[in-house]
Amino acid sequence: MADIRLKAYALATLVFAADRFTKWLVETRVSFTDTYTVIPGFFDIIHTQNTGVAFGLFAGSTSGLRPLILSALSVAAIALVGAMLWKARQMDRLSVAGLALVLGGAAGNVFDRIAWGRVTDFLEFYIGSLHWPTFNLADSAIVVGSGLLLMDLLRPNRQPART
Fold this sequence. Notes:
Number of strands: 4
Shape: globular
């Protein structure tokens, strides 16, 4: 059986590659004025640029240090998650999968932030005038990975029965 660490890092790499590919598609084929309706009244593909962090937080900041600080914090988070995955043999599969998704998603967004100072977002969900902030595949992987970690944390511990 292949090393669980290898599988975890492979999953993170797959998420990173899929994120880069989908962002490249949007950046090269969708203008800032285009809207592609996937599910009318619920889901569109658009092209936006986020200079902040999740959901555009800090995007309005005028500090010249903002990109450096955001990039440094993101790189530190990637290093921490990568180090946690190194001990994958001691973890439950759910935690390993969750950490791998978080690692791949974080790497996808930090790549954009370091390379261009912004992150491409394109998935827009809404109902009527209520809009969820636009996001991308990396953000989705981070949310799903975090959900898996939370599920594993909240799951009761299985202990062997006493005989």
